[in-house]
Model the fold of this input.
Amino acid sequence: MSDAAIDTLPGIGPVTQSRLEDAGIRTIGDLRSMGSVEAYRRLKFMLPRQVSLNALYALEAALRGCHWLDLPQDVKATLREQAKIIDEAFRRGGVTRCAL
Done:
């Protein structure tokens, strides 16, 4: 399954697939190995105005096999904190490292 195309994950449609591929994320294994936060960071730096917190939720939910609305509140809170760090780094123009 790790070599399966990224669009076979739930909630990953053609637009997200194309953006992920542009970021070098082509398979489920690629996404799983880097995690949702790093994938979001890459997308956010590539497309700052088009990529929102919902993208991070969707990536995490896809890896978990659920809808983003079903993510536990503590997971959403952690993801919001990571997104805030990434967004602040983007505004400063610096690079950030993210870890959950």
